[in-house]
Design brief:
Layout (H helix, E strand, L loop, with lengths): L1 H4 L2 E9 L3 E9 L4 E10 L9 H15 L8 E5 L5 E7 L5 H12 L10 E7 L4 E8 H13 L3 E6 L1 H13 L9 E7 L4 E7 L2 E8 L3 H4 L14 H22 L5 E6 L7 H11 L3 E3 L7 E2 L17 H7 L2
Parallel strand pairs: 1-4, 3-14, 4-8, 9-12, 12-13
Antiparallel strand pairs: 1-2, 2-3, 5-7, 6-7, 9-10, 10-11
């Protein structure tokens, strides 16, 4: 027990995605980052995301996972699922700061999936007079806050998933002096979604979520209705086209910037062959970034995470805990 007294314990990172709920808590002893506790629960197939049943499942899943006595405290940092977050990239208006949020909202209101009055927005200045605008539906934010409250978590903040991925990159894979100025593209391949972040070390420059993931990139059987499912090579082509569009959009707004490499933040959640194929078609140098392999596990038998054969992607959850 004295081991914990010598460590800085980070908040619990809560990553509720479309398919999996993940909780993790990290600590820093001064010699590196260690995993204190964690766990994950897959959403039941008959539970629709966002429904009342989903809320009840999420509450019970969090209570079950935090019942692991290795978790320290109840303070947590959470993020909205990528599917519930709208992101756009604009030129920074030349206007007074107290009017900036209203002007940015007016510029994206036609693109928002909800009425602008029901949206909460956050803006992050990037480089070359650009700004990343992030919006979420107020009702959905309140729904998540209610889940955490009923699960007895004390929410320190609601973060954004692009910042969480940048946190994981800078802490585990961007520690060399040459990495401080390097621009990298982070790809987080989830079961049904690929999250894209372009950053210069901790500075966010671009983010987008693409509704194509590991399940679509693997060979799939026919649907129950007899309709054929697009094969893996077709979905791979679609994903590469989407990623190429991300690069072009980024290049058009950051003309002085040049991406150095790809980093795949999928752990073992996506086959290495998929990552290799993406890097080859994008013609970019790439590396694998397995966050779980980058930390020490304080108590391997009690942490709640078995590193052997783990197919869960922990990049966002780790980045949230590090917030």
């Amino acid at each position: 027990m004295l081991w914990f007294l010598k460590n800085r314990t980070y908040p619990i990172g809560v990553d509720i995605g479309d398919d999996t709920l993940k909780l993790v808590q990290l600590a820093n002893s001064g010699n590196g980052v260690s995993l204190i506790a964690g766990g994950s629960e897959n959403r039941p197939e008959d539970v629709k995301p966002g429904s009342g049943d989903w809320q009840r499942w999420a509450i019970e899943a969090i209570r079950k996972l935090t019942a692991n006595g290795e978790f320290r405290g109840r303070e947590a940092v959470a993020a909205m699922p990528a599917s519930e977050v709208f992101i756009d990239h604009l030129k920074m208006p030349k206007i007074e700061n107290d009017k900036l949020e209203a002007v940015l909202l007016s510029k994206i209101k036609q693109k928002l999936p909800v009425e602008s009055e029901g949206a909460m927005i956050k803006y992050i200045p990037t480089e070359e007079d650009n700004v990343m605008v992030i919006a979420a539906e107020r009702e959905k934010v309140d729904r998540h806050l209610a889940i955490y409250e009923r699960a007895n978590l004390q929410i320190k903040s609601i973060a954004v998933w692009p910042a969480a991925l940048a946190n994981s990159y800078t802490r585990f894979f961007g520690r060399r002096k040459t990495d401080i100025e390097a621009i990298v593209m982070l790809l987080e391949i989830e079961p049904n979604r690929t999250n894209v972040v372009i950053c210069r070390h901790k500075n966010l420059l671009f983010a987008r979520s693409i509704p194509i993931g590991a399940k679509q990139l693997e060979n799939a059987p026919e649907c129950d209705e007899g309709r054929s499912v697009p094969q893996a090579d077709e979905m791979m082509t679609r994903l590469v086209l989407e990623l190429t569009a991300c690069r072009r959009h980024f290049d058009s707004m950051h003309r002085k910037a040049q991406m150095e490499r790809l980093i795949f933040f999928s752990g073992r959640a996506a086959d290495k062959e998929i990552c290799t194929a993406i890097a080859k078609q994008l013609e970019m140098p790439a590396q694998m970034g397995d966050c779980l392999a980058a930390v020490e596990i304080a108590s391997p038998y009690d942490s709640g995470i078995d590193r052997r054969g783990c197919r869960v992607n922990w990049a966002t959850a780790f980045g949230l805990s590090l917030s």
